[in-house]
């Protein structure tokens, strides 16, 4: 079977969920070969093998941490030259899309970004994209070169399928451009202790109805009682009540948790684009006509300032 390169997103060898989703999709079109750059390859290989990587091409060099994307593109291209894959899959993060685009230009291939599904077609892999705020679904195929596809988080559920996952060293020689942009400082974001938004099993989001940054603590308290991540509508983010990194929707993040709780959010199409594939959707809104209610499994018509604290108390009581 043809080999498919999968670019690994990880933190010191802890593989992030979107990569497990890529491995799951890659198995539909070939044998996944993971490309792991930076520290922790042996640790990562256990997880990568569990999710179907037949091998793990690993490279470690100071350049990966010290310079912006080009060293990683050099390494991915080295893997491409070694493997001659039938496709290259990369997570659809901002960095992933830049790496993928640069690789596609170098190898003279077509690229599809922000795919939400991938399947084998008669003439190669066919990618699904959700466009115009999810109003349309398109299917596309790369018609020139080796398909390079970036895939959005939560496009599929990761499924284990154990494979060898043996680590092989990848020889990388960096080009002149690799050291063109040096990272001069790094400041870690203060941890909230909550799960990452795109990876959380439960997300509680607040919108304009929360009516001020000072009120967002009630959303956070419900989230904490459920072990959830906190999301926000663009209206709440634009008003400066919550950081943009927490925005859910077309111009924010796409989430697909087991449970999505929308509080004080009307359900505009651009918000729905980022959460409508959630498994169970609950909305709390004082307007019974709010469009969000068209989408929900459970709806509560009421004032969130009354409902949310009661809900938090109830969750805490039931958890004992
Ligand atoms: C190109 C483009 C991209 C966009 N991208 C995004 C995006 O990524 N994400 C996004 O969210 N939006 C996005 N938007 C904006 C989107 O169109 C809406 O304006 C936005 O989602 C509205 O946010 P909201 O639901 O919080 O506010 P509103 O639409 O104002 O709704 C507030 C809701 O809160 C309810 N409410 C008020 N007070 C209470 C209370 N006390 N208790 C209970 N309910 C209450 C109201 O009944 C109302 O339904 C985008 C728009 C454009 C044009």
From TrEMBL:
Return the InterPro entries for the record. Answer: DHS-like_NAD/FAD-binding_dom, ETF_a/b_N, ETF_a/FixB, ETF_alpha_N, ETF_asu_C, ETF_asu_C_CS, Rossmann-like_a/b/a_fold
Keywords of this entry: Electron transport, FAD, Flavoprotein, Transport
What is the free-text note on the cofactor?
A: Binds 1 FAD per dimer.
Name the residues that bind FAD. Answer: 208, 233-234, 247-251, 264-271, 285
Electron transfer flavoprotein alpha/beta-subunit N-terminal domain spans which residues? 4-187
Question: SMART domains from the xrefs?
Answer: ETF
Write down the required cofactor(s).
FAD
Gene3D superfamilies named among the record's database cross-references: HUPs, TPP-binding domain
Q: Tell me which domain of life the UniProt entry assigns to the organism this sequence originates from.
A: Bacteria
- Record keyword Nucleotidyltransferase present: no
Q: Give any single GO term for biological process.
A: fatty acid beta-oxidation using acyl-CoA dehydrogenase
GO MF, one example: electron transfer activity
Protein family membership: Belongs to the ETF alpha-subunit/FixB family.
Can you state the subunit structure given in the record?
Heterodimer of an alpha and a beta subunit.
Per its database record, what is this protein's job? The electron transfer flavoprotein serves as a specific electron acceptor for other dehydrogenases. It transfers the electrons to the main respiratory chain via ETF-ubiquinone oxidoreductase (ETF dehydrogenase).
* Protein name as it appears in the record: Electron transfer flavoprotein subunit alpha
Q: Which organism is it from?
A: Streptomyces abyssalis
């Amino acid at each position: 079977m043809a080999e498919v390169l999968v670019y690994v997103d990880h933190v010191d060898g802890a593989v992030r969920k979107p990569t497990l989703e890529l491995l799951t999709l890659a198995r539909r079109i070939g044998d996944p070969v993971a490309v792991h750059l930076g520290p922790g390859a042996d640790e990562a290989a256990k997880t990568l093998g569990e999710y179907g990587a037949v091998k793990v091409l690993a490279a470690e060099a100071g350049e990966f941490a010290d310079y912006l994307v080009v060293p990683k593109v050099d390494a991915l291209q080295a893997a491409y030259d070694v493997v001659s894959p039938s496709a290259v899959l990369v997570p659809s993060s901002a960095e992933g899309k830049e790496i993928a685009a640069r690789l596609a230009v170098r190898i003279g291939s077509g690229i599809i970004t922000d795919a939400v599904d991938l399947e084998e077609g008669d003439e190669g892999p066919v990618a699904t994209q959700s466009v115009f705020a999810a109003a349309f679904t398109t299917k596309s195929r790369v018609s020139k070169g080796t398909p390079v596809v970036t895939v959005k988080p939560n496009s599929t559920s990761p499924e284990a399928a154990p494979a060898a996952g043996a680590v092989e060293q990848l020889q990388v020689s960096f080009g002149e451009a690799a050291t063109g942009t040096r990272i001069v400082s790094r400041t870690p974001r203060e941890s909230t202790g909550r799960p990452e938004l795109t990876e959380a099993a439960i997300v509680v989001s607040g919108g304009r109805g929360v009516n001020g940054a000072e009120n967002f603590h009630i959303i956070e308290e419900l989230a904490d009682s459920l072990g959830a991540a906190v999301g926000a509508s663009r209206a709440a983010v634009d008003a400066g009540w919550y950081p943009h990194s927490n925005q859910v929707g077309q111009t924010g993040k796409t989430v697909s948790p087991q449970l999505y709780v929308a509080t004080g959010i009307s359900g505009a199409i651009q918000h729905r684009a980022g959460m409508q594939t959630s498994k169970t959707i609950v909305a709390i809104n004082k307007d019974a006509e709010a469009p969000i209610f068209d989408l929900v499994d459970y709806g509560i018509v009421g004032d969130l300032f009354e409902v949310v604290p009661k809900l938090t108390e109830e969750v805490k009581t039931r958890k004992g």
